[in-house]
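hey can u check if this looks right to u? its 97 residues, i copy pasted from the old doc so theres a chance i mangled smth
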Amino acid sequence: MKEAELRAVSTCSRCGKKIGDSGLPLFWRVKVERFGVDMRAVERQTGLAMVLGHAGIAAIMGPDEDMAKPIMDPVIVTICEPCGTQDTCVAMLAGFE
């Protein structure tokens, strides 16, 4: 990570403190993605498996649809070492409080 990028991500997304304030020059970069299950695609795949009598054959013969789809853009957050070793709510990291 170059200096400019490090400066841009130098604040913890959880506590708001600068990375290294704790005395540890370590931090986490976390990519948070949220998905929703496409129930219609799951139902179609399940129906095909029931008709064919085997889920493995249905997986090969089916259309290979996405069973889950992203429902938000990925969020990349910086977490300082102390916050990274505590219980953290994933939704909070993504900005949902």
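The two ends are 29 Å apart (CA to CA).
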